[in-house]
Specification:
By secondary structure, the chain is α/β, with parallel strands linked by helices. It has helices at about 5-15, 25, 30-35, 35-45, 85-95, 105-120, 130-150, 175-180, 195-205, 240-245, 265-270; strands spanning about 60, 65-70, 70-75, 165, 185-190, 210-215, 225-235, 250-260, 275, 280, 290-295.
Length: about 300
């Protein structure tokens, strides 16, 4: 790739060891201040796209932009990884006293996840939430809130095989953050939109997820094994999706819904024989809840 010979002195200037696992992502912002040309080359390299000649130095809202073959002109800052300390701070209300459980590696994976999501969201509609901090609160916060209720002991989750199916995964919420919280679970993501499936596969490769199955198709057609936990969040046609989700729960398994408060009555109406827990309000929201049930089998 043109310009890669400049990367070695860049790493030296930033004072980062070339054998570190995530340093290049984290130092782009600082590099922009000291060696903007080098930062431009490195950001393009990490984005995984070839350069189109020399960087097109354009100004957009005071931010120098670069031109990538697939994305056109993009603000350089959108390719930078969000600081893990800020992510931990934003997640505090959702994890409470368990916030320290998130390791540096987990926080780094969340940061890389956000970066990948923002870049893909420029091409395909993965989420209507565009601001990184709002993504942390709305998507990761809700997902990890569900994770700590489903798996209070994330280290122990998986001592015996535990499977989770996430229906209508979209951009991977809540399934992938739950997997980051409890890495030893077996995760199945069901998504009918093939562009979103492509994103999920790229995400799994980028943050090196293992024991994960991404199923392109509708949940009604899923013929795999039943799961110990089935999750449902922000799906279309909730009235038809909920019975389908309940049918994929194994005996003694649980169904976890991240829904609006008004939908709780409908959920109980659709599954009257299920054993429903009391809805748990989501932090920083006046209308959304976590609702867990054990469907009758």
């Amino acid at each position: 790739m043109r310009g890669t010979t400049e990367l070695t002195p860049i790493v030296t200037k930033c004072g980062v060891s070339s054998v570190c696992q995530f340093p290049l992502y984290e130092c782009i912002s600082e590099m922009k201040k000291k060696v903007p040309r080098a930062a431009t080359i490195l950001a393009s390299f990490l984005a995984g796209f070839s350069r189109v000649g020399r960087p097109a130095k354009q100004r957009r809202g005071g931010v120098e932009s670069i031109r990538l073959r697939k994305f056109g002109t993009r603000p350089l800052q959108s390719l930078c990884i969000m600081e893990t300390s800020r992510i931990a701070e934003l997640l505090q209300p959702f994890l409470a006293e368990d916030a320290a459980v998130l390791s540096p590696a987990q926080l780094n994976n969340i940061s890389i996840y956000i970066d990948l999501l923002l870049r893909w969201n420029a091409r395909i509609n993965l989420t209507s939430v565009r601001q990184p901090e709002a993504i942390v609160i709305r998507h990761f916060g809700e997902s990890l809130f569900a994770a700590r209720h489903l798996f209070p002991d994330p280290v122990g989750a998986g001592d015996s095989p535990i499977s989770l199916i996430d229906i209508g995964s979209g951009a991977g919420f809540p399934g992938v953050p739950i997997k980051l919280w409890a890495p030893r679970i077996h995760l199945t993501l069901i998504e009918s939109n093939h562009k979103k499936v492509a994103f999920l596969r790229q995400l799994a490769r980028t943050i090196t997820l293992t024991d994960i199955n991404i199923v392109p198709g509708r949940a009604e057609a899923y013929a795999g094994p039943l799961a110990d936990v089935v999750t449902l969040r922000a799906v279309e046609r909730f009235s038809s999706a909920l019975p389908t989700a309940a049918n994929l729960v194994a005996p003694t398994g649980r169904l976890a819904l991240l829904i609006g408060q008004p939908q709780t009555a409908l959920a109980r109406e659709l599954l009257p024989s299920a054993a429903w827990n009391h809805p748990v309000p989501l932090p920083l929201s006046s209308a959304r809840v976590l609702l867990i049930a054990r469907p009758a089998k």
